[in-house]
Amino acid sequence: MSKKLLVFLTGLFLLASLASYVYYRRTVAAVPVDPWALVPDDAVLVAATRDHPTLVRHLKETQVWDNLTTVRYFQGLENTVVLIDSLTGSRNVLMRFLGRKKVLTSVHVTGHGRFDVLLQLPIGSVREYRQVRSLVDALSRDPQFRVRTREYEGALLTEISEVGTGRGITFLNHRNHLVMSPNPGLVEAVVRRLAAPEQPSVAADFQNTDFFRLRDVDATLLINYRRLPRLLGVFFRADVVPGIGSVTSLVLDGQLEMKLAGNKVVFSGFANPETTAGSLHKQLRGQPAQRLRMADVLSLRTALLVHLGIGEAHVLRGARPAATTDSLAASINPLLDSLLAGMSKEAALAYLAPASARVSPGRLAVVWCAQPARQAILLGQLRRAVGASPSFERVGTYQIHQTGVPELPARLLGPLFAGFRQPAVAVVGNYVVFGDDAAAMRTWLQDVVAGQVWARSPTQVSFLQETQPLARLSVVLDTRNAWNLLLRGLVEERRAGLLRNESLFKRFPQVALQFVPAANEAETGAQYFTQLLLRHPLVGPAVARPQGSIGTGSLLAFKTPLAGSPTLVSVAGATRPGVLVQDAAQVLHYVTPENVVAWSDTLPGPLVGRIQRQTVAGRSGYLLATPSQLHFLDEQGRSTPTFPLNLPDSVRASGLTVSPAGAFGAPRLLVTGGGGNLFLYDTKGNAYPSWLPKRLDFNLAAPPLYLVVGGRDVVVVLLENGYVYAFDQQGGVYPGFPISLGARLQSEALAETVGPTLNRTRITVVNQHGERVTFSLAGDVVGRSRVATWSRSSVFRLIPDQRRRTYVVAREEGGQLDLFDPTGRRLLGQKFLTSGQKPVQFFDFGAEQRVYVLTESGPGKAYVYDRLGRLLGGQPFDSSAPEVGLEYEATTKTYHLYRTIGPELRRTSLELK
Fold it and tell me: How many angstroms separate the CA atoms of 506 and 490, rounded?
């Protein structure tokens, strides 16, 4: 072959390769991968998550995260995350990789007593692809792991296994879409699905539903109810599963959105009805949804309730066979028909909590009747017809009789109520109640007589008020009462797992799954509205409720009056901030952006100074002070090691100043001890010797200003006599200080410019002659100008904005308060009835969104003005604290005002005109 021909063929090959690559990028790769189309058809559950940082935050705020970390599966996952971080040499690699990707996790039954998980992760960039390759390469070099590839039906599968344990994972990269599972068969099933792309996906019935378009959705869940009994069969004994299948035969499949909020997790969405012959939906179709009226006769011992809303009870039994060989049935059928004709509206199975897992739970069948006296007469006639004993047992005013008819509830209400071999019966109120034995009836009736029923339990009533008022099927579970019931029903090899995860299982003791039919079901056969509610009783310090008919926000009512101003703290991934607020009992509460108290921590005294967000020893949290202690609380409200720091008995802290975040070394804590005393500590409790204490001749005019300039600490201290000092970390005075500002001071300072040197750093203050004075940390006054006229009774204060970048100047004289900008231009004025000092706040959200808040503490009013001096809301807001919190949401042009009124924390939305 000639050299020219070789060059020509090589060029032709390169050109073809380039064309193929361009074609792939612009055609194949340009078509997005539908992750639902990759899920194998036998999926029982498919969870979709998207905003993983927010999901983790919600899990932590609802304290579910702490329970999850005790589960062995999640502990293994946590170990895997630590391994990934160690191999990549970085922290939080997996969480950053997940970010806001849409991730699918499907659950499949893969064998007898076994299920496995399939995970799908999209790769969004070349950088992420390199991260994956680097991780696989690192594992291949690690002697603890073995990495190999194999081909399956034209697809390249990568298998990573841990040497000596047999544990491993198999993954497939399909068009930059990772599909992985510890079970290779599930990944192979994905390959087979790719060979038949025309097959409908598991989410075909919900392809036009995208719950992530809604606000505050943490995840979605797809459920195949037809396959659900098989998954539950992995955990429960074989004799339990048919009963579960009878209940789940109401619906075929469904999709739910998940929201985590405070004391509950709410799944809500829609489900398609199960239309096969003999299904529960076929039996109940067209029946009206009903209320759960039987709370008056449900014992607090109830562990599980299966409640059916019906019109007439005969729909549960269906048509009786025309001929029967059962001589007993033939003789009593007329009486049974009469009994059944009087039953309607609701029927339920109730399981009472057993004393131990070795004892069978008491079981009740409860049916509503319009004429209980007539039902009692018919039951008496039935007893005489079958020759049952006329004797009875009395509990209070109620009587327990033997029916003498085996399986009487099933004869009346169908196979769902089977299992009552020799039932007892009692009539209580408007309900006929059958028990599988007299002992269960006795226990239940004792609770009814004693008033230990749902209707008289505030906890249970509040739970029922959060459920759907009308439903066709409701399954209500009390996880604490059901503990022994579950242990008894589980297969032997699953009991140890339940015992290990007890804290997670009992985290939400109140669970309700409900199905509500559409109003026009008879005409269209529309979907069921579905809600799954997991809740723990509100035992916290506050209850949320609307502000009222004219309220445009939320209200959180605490049991104890609030004593401090609300402090807003930013929350990663949330559009609104969290709030820290202290009550009169010295308890500090953290309120999430969703208006739920996530944690509370009792402090030894009232807060002094401001709460500051800091990072100490690699942990993010809040630094704060009380008169006798310094505290550092992490984001879950827990004290970190070495904290709290106990101040000497002679020290009563009046303020806390912290070195700037991100400054060199650990934060330095400057404590104001009253008068002119200053103390400096590190975060381990060590005091700086030259600051024990630093006594100044005059009282401080404002909290000290802590700066770091060119790697050097500078503490700027303003005294009431008009002198300014600048100290270094050893307590020495910087050259050029002290300086006199020519008049007394009653205001704080603002660092307008922090330069690389002391000479190029500028500090601005306002003295009581109305002068704005700017000086450098070299001790030179570099600017002086008058902001406004003054008199002996006037008080000037410099008011920085919430980010300490700009400022305004407030002048008070008697009841008159005026605000000026730095050039002396008057912004607004307000005449007050009272003469006490008025706290002023300045919020700068941009040139067009500046807000000024003036608070009159006497009558408890907060005046909120915009940049043009217009009163937002048209009137002052009630506020019992010296300050308010304010945030601006630019996308909706809405201000969110946070204020306290007695025991209430209110968030009010104010739209910008």
Answer: 16
